[in-house]
Amino acid sequence: MRKGIFYILVVGLSVVLYSCFSITVNVYFPAGDVKSAFKTLEHDLMKGESPAETPQAPDQNVPGKPEPKPQSMMRFDIGVSTAYAQNAGELSESLSEYLRQDPDVVKAYGEMGGRLDYINRLRGQGTVGEGNDGLLKPRGDLGKKETAAVSEENANRKAIIRAMARAIVLINGQTVTNAAIDQVLDKAAGQFAAVRADSAKPGWWVQKADGSWVKK
């Protein structure tokens, strides 16, 4: 009887461990493309552009006019093997275009653009620094206004990073669940942080991967 129970427990644990292991090793994370997509989105969406300002799709009834591209998942049914085979930059374009269609991402970048001057002032003063998780980190005492701005900024950044993690889950052909997103969330945050570190101005504080801080 005890052997039977022990056998069931061992088999059950093995299945759980195998499932976790499979999820981990099968996730394809295109770090360079993710970083490039973040750069493109920041350049395009932090200017305060709205979807209404983009050119309208061509009229399909006009002869000779090209048909507009579908606004659905585009190439997010490409799968992992096809993603590996894509030319440099193609997957980055797919990722940035997919996130560009997410209203929450567009809103987040727009709000970040609206407070950019204020956040730059805080970074220039050394009051906050760029964390290695893609979020702003206080480096001194913050007043009520500063604390609110940092909190709002980080909420926007978290929304963007999570949207990117969701996109990565999709190109891996996985069902979008919190557990699947969590598998790549840290990596997505790392690439967002890398963009922030690259664009940091002289005198700004940036946190390295080991947790230490340097002034750029």
Structure description:
Helices cover 60% and strands 6% of the residues. It has 216 residues and is mainly alpha-helical. The chain has one domain. The strands form two sheets. It has a two-stranded antiparallel ribbon with strand order 1-2. α7 (144-171) crosses α8. The longest helix has 28 residues, at 144-171. The radius of gyration is 21 Å and the shape is globular. The protein starts with a helix and ends with a strand.
* First-residue to last-residue Cα separation: 66 Å
Instruction: From the alpha carbons, calculate the radius of gyration and give it in angstroms.
Output: 21 Å
Write the H/E string, N to C.
HHHHHHEEHHEE
Q: What is the overall shape?
A: globular
Poorly predicted regions are 5-11, 15-25, 48-75
Protein traits:
216 residues, two-stranded antiparallel ribbon, 8 helices, mainly alpha
Outline:
This protein has 216 residues and is mainly α. The chain has 8 helices and 4 strands.
Please specify the SSE layout and strand pairing.
Layout: H1 2-26, H2 31-45, H3 79-85, H4 90-100, H5 103-114, H6 116-125, E1 128-130, E2 136-138, H7 144-171, H8 178-199, E3 205-207, E4 213-215
Antiparallel strand pairs: 1-2, 3-4
Helix pairs in contact: 2-4, 2-8, 5-7, 7-8
